[in-house]
């Protein structure tokens, strides 16, 4: 296991990058990832998360900056010398080998004793639900089954610096995804490997990781626990990307403990500095539809019943404001205003969260 440190990291696939858009990882990333923690790299396609993972694994050398495992600079070391395991998006298995031999391969390649190999292979096979097919050849197995073998191969070694997963559950059926995420979490808790898991699926990231690394357009915009990402998004992208629906965002002018949105005042729980490019953000969970004169005047456009709750879609000028209401709760016919819980309102300047007086 290892602490992973990124120092002044950046990468471009262009030999002579000039514009910001030429950088897949924009200058510069400086982060230290704790030894033994489980991280998820989360973001939309093309944001740079797989590029970053491949730099950490040694499949790609960064255009600038260094990678350290512990105190060792591994920037110029090949993948084999970094003592990691990596599981790719699409299954990589040896078709002519049995499932057993596929799982055993990484251990045998390191010279492990056969008794240990057998114990470890059978343990991992049970974890991925393949104990009954250990003697079958991989050829002819479904893509789902082959990806489980690939996952098992990544997890079979106990003494590695890190285990890296690049969207490993893409070809797994939804029910098995949940089971495998649970097993990966259990494996992490048992053995304490440093794990980095790339995904564009927020559910996968939030249920798997201790810390989620949110990326957008080649930048890390926030590293935090699932609770921190939900409660205090450091950037408006995080507020929008995390949650379903995402955070409501409204341009506002700020004066101390009061925001003004299109002429309507919205109370805040702390005092904030004013300035240009200000917005307020509040999650639909902390937004209520009410009768009377308080709050922002809205038009209800539709109501979606999704089982656990209702999503009430409303329109305020040219902006949509979403409200979450408990399942079974009636939507008052005269309710034409939305109000926010002041303690749950975040304030942003130029996309980045601003801390109010006395706030973290």
Keywords:
plasmid, alpha+beta, Rossmann fold, OB fold (Dihydrolipoamide Acetyltransferase, E2P), transport
Overall number of strands: 22
Into how many domains do the coordinates divide? 2
The backbone outline, from C-alpha atoms, is globular
From the N-terminal CA to the C-terminal CA, the straight-line distance is: 31 Å
Tell me the number of helical segments per DSSP (H or I, 4 or more residues long): 8
Instruction: Quote the CATH topology of the largest domain.
Output: Rossmann fold
Rounded to the nearest angstrom, the radius of gyration is 24 Å
The assigned structural class equals alpha+beta
Helicity range: 10-25%
Order of helices and strands: EEEHEEEHHHEHEHEEHHEEEEEEEEEEEE
Give the uncertain stretches in residue-range form.
none
Name the quaternary structure: single chain
CATH architecture type of the largest domain: 3-Layer(aba) Sandwich
So, the CATH homologous superfamily of the largest domain?
P-loop containing nucleotide triphosphate hydrolases
> So what's the CATH class of the largest domain?
Alpha Beta
Mean pLDDT: 90
What portion of the residues fall into strands of 2 or more residues?
Answer: 25-35%
């Amino acid at each position: 296991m290892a602490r992973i440190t990124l120092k002044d990291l950046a990468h471009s696939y262009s030999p002579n990058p000039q514009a910001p858009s030429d950088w897949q990882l924009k200058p510069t990333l400086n982060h230290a990832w704790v030894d033994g923690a489980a991280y998820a790299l989360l973001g939309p396609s093309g944001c740079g998360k797989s590029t970053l993972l491949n730099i950490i694994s040694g499949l790609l050398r960064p255009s600038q900056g260094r990678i350290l495992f512990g105190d060792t600079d591994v920037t110029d070391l090949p993948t084999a010398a970094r003592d990691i395991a990596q599981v790719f998006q699409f299954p990589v298995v040896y078709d002519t080998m049995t499932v057993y031999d596929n799982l055993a391969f990484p251990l045998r390649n390191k010279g492990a004793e056969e008794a240990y190999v057998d114990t470890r292979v059978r343990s991992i096979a049970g974890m991925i639900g393949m104990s009954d097919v250990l003697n079958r050849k991989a050829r002819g197995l479904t893509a789902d089954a082959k990806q489980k073998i690939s996952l098992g191969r990544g997890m079979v070694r106990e003494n590695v610096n890190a285990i890296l997963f690049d969207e490993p559950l893409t070809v797994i059926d939804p029910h098995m995804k949940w089971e495998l995420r649970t097993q990966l979490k259990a494996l992490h808790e048992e053995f304490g490997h440093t794990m980095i898991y790339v995904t564009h699926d927020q559910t996968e990231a939030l249920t798997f990781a201790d810390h989620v690394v949110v990326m957008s357009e080649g930048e890390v915009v926030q590293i935090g626990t699932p609770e921190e990402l939900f409660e205090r998004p450091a950037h408006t992208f995080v507020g929008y990307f995390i949650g379903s629906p995402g955070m409501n965002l409204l341009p506002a002018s700020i004066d101390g403990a009061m925001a003004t949105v299109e002429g309507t005042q919205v109370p805040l729980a702390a005092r904030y500095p004013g300035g240009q490019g200000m917005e307020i953000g509040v999650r639909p969970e902390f937004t209520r539809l009410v009768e009377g004169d308080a709050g922002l005047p809205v038009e209800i456009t539709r109501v979606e019943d999704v089982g656990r709750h209702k999503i009430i879609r409303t329109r305020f000028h040219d902006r949509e404001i979403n409200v979450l209401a408990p399942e079974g709760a009636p939507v008052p016919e005269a309710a034409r205003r939305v109000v926010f819980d002041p303690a749950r309102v975040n304030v942003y300047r130029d996309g980045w969260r601003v801390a109010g007086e006395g706030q973290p």
